[in-house]
UniProtKB/TrEMBL annotation:
It is a multi-pass membrane protein. This is Bile acid:sodium symporter. Signal peptide: none annotated. It comes from Melaminivora suipulveris. It is found in: Membrane. One of its GO terms (cellular component) is membrane. Pfam families: SBF. The chain crosses the membrane at residues 6-28, 40-60, 66-89, 96-118, 138-157, 178-196, 202-222, 234-254, 260-280. It comes from the Bacteria. Keywords: Membrane, Transmembrane, Transmembrane helix. InterPro entries: BilAc:Na_symport/Acr3 (IPR002657), Bilac:Na_transpt (IPR004710), Na+/solute_symporter_sf (IPR038770).
Length: 296
């Protein structure tokens, strides 16, 4: 009963608050702004919604990872970028406005893309019978409820009470960070034996996936001749995932706690990889004309 309360009530509520705190920092202009940067948007979408799931899938095949853990990693790869990417972008001296805009747009698009990836992953790694038990339409509604609605409410609160929203948003972000740590701890404690037994396999996989996507996102943006600051931002946006959503999908929607372990492991390690990347890009940016595209 206690596990049902955690998975069915507490985790979705915590994720809803995390997304509400993101909404407090957004305005409709953030959605419009990204349309003025179509090349950055296109590169970011390709990296996040195409290359990340593909890279995750091929790494799973390469390492022989299968079963519920493979599905767990695919769920993670299908999630939108996490709100922490905005902080890492700031630390890296990247384009924070682009980070905010991309996070908002990715969160909306994920409502439609995540159920498709999850259903395919269940079929591919666990057999068709598992996918049949998860109606795509129902999952879309659940993702919209814990992802889209709280963001919309946060934006509405900012519009109605802008002074309060601007004061509360930094505090809400800190609270959201603490709540995310709580989500991870709950997942770890609930599945401690399984985590210990598989940590030596899951942790290296998560770290390789994170570091490779940080590098690939940056390289793709650089190859597309985007400015340095935007390239840094898209590197972070490609690799920093909403691990809280991955835990909710695994535990609350699919009712399979083991699938939450990859999200929990990645959710911790992505901070380490993202912080190293941000500090490195910040140092390199001081000597590489960060405001200017690398090619004329």
């Amino acid at each position: 009963m206690q596990g049902d309360i955690v998975s069915g009530v507490l985790l979705p509520l915590i994720l809803a608050f995390i997304m509400f705190s993101l909404g407090l920092g957004l305005t409709p202009q953030d959605f419009r702004r990204i349309l003025t940067q179509p090349r950055a948007l296109l590169v970011g979408m390709v990296c996040h919604f195409v290359l990340l799931p593909l890279a995750c899938y091929f790494l799973l095949k390469l390492t022989g990872t299968a079963g519920v853990f493979a599905v767990g990693f695919m769920i993670l790869a299908a999630c939108p970028t996490g709100s922490t990417s905005n902080l890492l972008t700031y630390l890296a001296r990247g384009d924070v406005a682009l980070a905010l805009s991309f996070t908002a747009v990715a969160s909306v698009l994920t409502i439609f893309t995540l159920p498709l990836v999850v259903t395919w992953s269940l079929t591919h790694f666990l057999g068709a019978s598992r996918a049949v038990n998860v109606p795509v339409g129902l999952m879309m509604g659940q993702v919209a409820l814990v992802l889209g609605l709280p963001v919309a409410l946060g934006m509405w609160a900012r519009r109605q009470r802008p002074a309060w929203a601007l004061r509360f948003e930094p505090r809400a972000t800190r609270i959201a960070t603490v709540l995310f740590v709580l989500i991870v701890l709950l997942a770890v404690v609930k599945n401690w034996a399984l985590l210990v037994a598989n940590f030596n396999t899951l942790a290296p996989f998560a770290l390789v996936l994170n570091l490779s996507m940080l590098a690939l996102g940056f390289a793709m943006a650089w190859a597309a001749r985007l400015p340095y600051r935007q390239s840094v931002t898209l590197g972070i946006e490609t690799a920093v995932q909403n691990a809280a959503l991955a835990l909710v999908i695994a535990s609350s929607v699919l009712k399979e706690d083991a699938m939450a372990i990859p999200g929990a492991v990645y959710g911790v390690l992505m901070y380490a990889g993202g912080l190293v990347f941000a500090l490195l890009m910040r140092r390199l940016g001081r000597v590489s004309a960060p405001e200017v595209a690398h090619a004329a």
